[in-house]
Design goal:
four-stranded mixed β-sheet; Endonuclease, Chain A; alpha+beta
Amino acid sequence: MLEKYAKELRNNPTDAERLLWRYLRKSQINNCKFRRQQVLGKYIVDFVCLDPKIIIELDGAQHQQQQTYDARRTAYLEGNGFQVLRFWNH
């Protein structure tokens, strides 16, 4: 179920995701291989590099309303050894 939704997200990126992906794809930054809209446990992350364990999240306006959810999600991901970097879409 999550894999199908992740595929839909990959096929319909936001403008900010599309722009950032141009710089992350093909290991352009420090030879880090990023994946986009990747399922990790019970969550889908915007961009992830598995080695080193870095997640980049681009947050839109809806994230102002879901701060508790985002905090739980970040705690789960950090508890699994990932460093989570969050940026606003604008």
